[in-house]
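Students often ask why inverse folding is considered easier than folding. One informal answer: many sequences map to the same fold, so there is more than one right answer. In these notes we will look at a single instance of the problem. The structure comes first.
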């Protein structure tokens, strides 16, 4: 099975983003400006939705560090997206303690429910499903993180279904409200 091809257009970081980078770099001694790499990645992702190799290169140039060093940070942390993701990014913990307590089953259930494989995005762009390393809540497993912010614990198949169905219903209600406002 082949993986989807992600084409990336060249991107230039905006003056606003560069100003935010400068604020972050100013927090460190000049010889340690590379310490701002995570903040710069977060800022760039917030503007562009993901961190492309072109953005990694620009951050590396800005911070005076090798691009591979920036790429190592980007690929180490699940919070940095290397390509466009769905509106809801679902990270299921598959580290050993969670696997022993049905983390793998939770991931498989979501693959089946969403009709995508791990790493994929639903055709409507609503959900991206990923596995993640330890989320630090082993006693609550299976656990998952939604959009890198909301921790969900004890995720049985029923709770997974409720989560996905609830997000779909909220999205439908929101888009329905937007249509009726536009028609008024």
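Output (designed amino acids):
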């Amino acid at each position: 099975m082949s993986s989807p091809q992600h084409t990336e257009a060249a991107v230039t970081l905006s003056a606003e983003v560069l100003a935010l980078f400068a604020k972050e770099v100013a927090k460190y001694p000049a010889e340690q400006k590379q310490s701002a790499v995570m903040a710069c990645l977060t800022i760039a992702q917030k503007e562009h939705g993901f961190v492309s190799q072109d953005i990694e290169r620009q951050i590396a140039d800005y911070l005076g560090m090798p691009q591979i060093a920036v790429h190592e940070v980007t690929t180490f942390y699940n919070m940095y997206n290397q390509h466009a993701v769905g509106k809801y990014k679902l990270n299921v913990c598959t580290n050993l303690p969670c696997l022993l307590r049905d983390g793998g089953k939770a991931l498989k259930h979501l693959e089946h429910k969403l009709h995508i494989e791990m790493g994929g995005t639903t055709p409507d762009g609503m959900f991206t499903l990923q596995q993640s390393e330890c989320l630090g809540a082993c006693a609550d497993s299976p656990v998952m993180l939604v959009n890198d912010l909301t921790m969900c614990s004890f995720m049985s198949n029923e709770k997974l279904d409720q989560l996905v169905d609830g997000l779909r219903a909220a999205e439908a209600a929101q888009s329905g409200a937007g249509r009726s406002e536009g028609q008024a």
